[in-house]
Amino acid sequence: LSGSGVPQLVQPMIWDYAADIDVEGKVQLVEKYRRCGFSKVWFASAFKGATGVNQSLTLTGHHLRNQLEWLQVASRSPADVLEGIALTGWQRYDHFSVLCELLPVAIPSLAVCLQALKNGGYSEKVKENVEKLLGMSNLEIDTFMR
């Protein structure tokens, strides 16, 4: 790769939507890309649409844990390597499936994930901020919200 000139033309994106990603493996992958000559990498997480083909409601806790895992990868990677995080929200689990997790039911998950990334983690203060922003009295993380 380093001899091909590709690292000067593109920035790779590392995708993983799991709630328990292999943090050490991702750090090693970032280091491999650096050794190949890529100066920057992107991470891709998800706030909805990545947990099951028939999923109707969004599992906010799953997606929050995904963001927290990526924050761990970022903190253990060289400071100047991360260009950004693409926070994805898939409308279909795959190209042959029906629509899943429509945006309105995923708004709380999106808000939680954005606030966790913005604040570098999740805390009671972050939860209260999301509740205030969305006009909610009780944000549920580990159950399906109504």
TrEMBL record:
The species is Edolisoma coerulescens
This protein's name: HEXDC Hexosaminidase
**Name of the gene:** Hexdc_0
Which superkingdom does the taxonomy of this entry point to? Eukaryota
| GO MF terms held by the record | hexosaminidase activity
Which parts of the chain span the membrane according to its record? Answer: none
Against InterPro entries, the record matches this protein to: GH (IPR017853), HEXDC-like (IPR038901)
